[in-house]
Amino acid sequence: MGDGKSTFADGAEVPRVVIVDDHRLFRSGVRGELGDAVEVVGEAGDVDAAVRVITEHHPDLVLLDVHLPGGGGVEVLRRVLAKHPDIRFLALSVSDAAEDVIGVVRGGARGYVTKTISGKELADAIVRVADGDAVFSPRLAGFVLDAFSATDAPPMDPELDRLTQREREVLRLIARGYAYKEVAKELFISVKTVETHVSSVLRKLQLSNRHELSRWATARKLV
Amino acid sequence: MAAETTAAEEEPRLHRAREGRLLGGVGAGLARHLGIDPVVARLALLALAFGGIGIAVYATLFFLVPAENEAESGEDEQDASRRRGRDISQLLGYLALAAGLGVLFLIFGGLFDPLLWFLVFGAIGAAILWQQANPAQRDEWVSVTGIRSRKSWMRAGAGIMLIVIGVFGFLAFQQQLHEARAGLTFALAMLAGISLIAAPWIVGLVRERDRERRERIRSQERAELAAHIHDSVLHTLTLIQRRASDPREVQRLARVQERALRSWLYQRPADAESTVKAALERVAAEVEEEHGVPIEVVCVGDGEMDDAVHAELRAAREAMVNASKYAGTDTVSVFGEVEPDEVLVFVRDRGDGFDLDAVPEDRMGVRGSIIGRMERHGGSARIRTAPGEGTEVQLRMPRIAAAE
Question: Would you say residue B4 has pLDDT above 60?
Answer without folding.
Answer: no
